[in-house]
Amino acid sequence: KPLPTATHRYPYHLCLSPITMLTFTFLLLPVARARASIRATASHRPAAMFTAGAAACRRLPRKTLVTALSRSSRRRMRAFGSGSASAVEGYVPPKVWENKERPGVWGKLNQPYAGAREERGVPRGEHALQLYSFATPNGMKAGIFLEELYDRYKTEYDAWPIKISEGDQFTSGFVEVNPNSKIPALLHYTEENEEPVRVFESGSVLLYLADTLDTDQVFILKDPKLRAECISWLFWQVGAAPYLGGGGFKNFFNAEVKIESAIDKYALEVKRQFDVLDRHLGGKDGDATGGGPYILGEQFTIADIAIWTWYGLRALDAKSADGEFLGLASYPSVTAWAQRVADRPAVQRGQRVNKVWGNEAQQLPERHSAADFES
Ligand SMILES: N[C@@H](CCC(=O)N[C@@H](CS)C(=O)NCC(=O)O)C(=O)O
């Protein structure tokens, strides 16, 4: 049998057309590659799907890509939260970063510059202490401690909501209290000073209130070793929480496009932090202050308040999607401590201060006296 000629085996008649060749090289081949890599990774590694797809598609114009990809590939991409072709294309950073419009409440509020955007003062009530806050984990720290101080010393204060979702943090009055435009912040009108003392950053609010108002030194202990331990845990929390909150785990876990390496990095660190707490509260590190019932042992301090609003509340929400993902039910000493703190009456009241969302019975937008909780 004679061997087939080359003409039979290869579609030379197609190759003869330069248009066909160009189409094949610059469109059909890259699209086929993109589809193959998306198919190969989609089943078991959704995050890698985007990277693979992005690498294979980078040279294609967006329109060509979106129409050329099969319907099922597009559906798979949407299922993992992309919904747009840019997720497939990936991000190629320009030489110099440029600001751009971002969607959503926070996208509109956050800008790469500081300072006041609107001329408006902050209100002032009759008490020496004026709290400007919102019932987020950082804001709650101040409300809870002020309520603990009320229970022990009957210290009254005024608390005003700073609605950060509406931009109150960028008004001139608030920026004068906190140039960083974040809650909580405090003004303390004292007899010695003509101008009020301004305090910003939640950790520093707790420390300032303990130093100036906790005359019995129960919320920050007198003994230098225990005082140092308390401040160490306080600073630990302020440094650690961004991995769990705003800038960290939650952001990547809830992101439109889930990036496996980012989620891994933050999940690992958050779990390590929970283990640090669990070992300490479970007395596994052999330190005199470890073993509970509170962070500093027998005494409930500002370290408990700071850590509880982030790690305690998360531990009590272990059945949520991210709580389950992080295995938060597997830190028994943290869970027991979190419940113990949650049972304190001042902690229950403090969570309501400057709260303007959720269950109405739990809201207290402004607080001017202890009686406000009864109304
Ligand atoms: N390190 C600060 C963080 C404060 C913070 O991030 N506050 C958030 C609410 S929890 C805020 O005010 N965000 C407003 C914004 O970012 O514009 C602290 O501990 O006080």
Automatic annotation (TrEMBL):
One Pfam family in the UniProt entry: GST_C_2
Q: Which residues form the GST N-terminal domain?
A: 126-217
Domain GST C-terminal per the UniProt entry, residue ranges: 223-373
Source taxon at top rank: Eukaryota
Q: Which SUPFAM superfamilies match?
A: GST C-terminal domain-like, Thioredoxin-like
Similarity section: Belongs to the GST superfamily.
Q: What is this protein called?
A: Glutathione S-transferase
